Sequence to fold (303 residues):
Amino acid sequence: MRGKAKRIVNTAAFTALALVMHVLEGFLPPLLPFAPGVRLGLANIFTFLALIFCGGADALAVQVLRCLLGAVFGGNVSALMYSMTAGLLSYAVMWALYTFCWKRLSLVGISLACSAVHNAAQVCVAALVLSSYGVLYYLPYVVLVGSAAGLFTGAVTYFVVKYAGSKISCYT
Amino acid sequence: MDKRDKLAAVRRKKLFSLWDLVVALMVLAVGLGVFFFIPRVRGSYALVYSDGAQVLKLDLTREGEYTVRYGDGYNTLRVTGGGVEVAGSSCPDKVCVHFGRIDKTGQEIVCLPNRLVVKIYAGAGLDGVTG
Fold:
């Protein structure tokens, strides 16, 4: 019973932290002036931490709740289709890589792939929504900058995992 | 493997691994590779940059002639049939004039002596809402 309570508390805490990051990030200027969807992805750090410290189902909950609540708190519900599609796709990649390739890849590598997929997915959704192929021309820039952002968030995740106390883990 | 052991193993790992490089290269290859597979579509407007700053937005559905000046030089742009060409230029080499007419997205004409760039775009651009 104690383990279950800890999981709920941890998932809630990670969701809250991710949401705060999501909202704060909205105040920052976009990394690329022509593509407002490209962000540092700070909120993703907490999804990743939830995956590492709690497990796949908990991290999925964090990701979905963060996207939903982020749309409510950000006051921009139409952005939900971008963040939810990209959020689910990138989470699938993150989960698959962490589950099956964790021995070979470092956390930074997983984060990089996740971030690249996240940004590519957003551009693809934008292309569909605006029904314009021209938007896809942004893809290389967006993926490049997104990958760099993924390196950063991956490094942050790595240091948290390495040096944070074992108390935040659900497993110990 | 027990989840506790996995977490302990992850904690012992280094910041980077060699396979990260493989992932990074794959991401780059796909990201840049997509560039060559995007179907070229006819543009709807062209942006004209002089010395890096946007000076004109040309509606490609409306025919007409425009002149862009840069210092003592000039370029004359002509919009015809959904495309744009440089009809006249003060530059010595006339590369921009000989380049001909462009009408597909992503195509561009550059006149280096006059610091002029004409680039074609389609649709509404990425001004939509993203999150």
Q: What stands out?
A: Residues 18-37 of chain B form the longest helix (20 residues). The two ends of chain B are 38 Å apart (CA to CA). Residues 125-131 of chain B have pLDDT under 50 and may be disordered. Chain B touches chain A at residues 3-4, 6-7, 9-11, 13-17, 19-20, 23-24, 27-28, 30-32, 34-35, 38-39, 41, 43, 105-106, 121-126, 128-131 (CB under 8 Å).
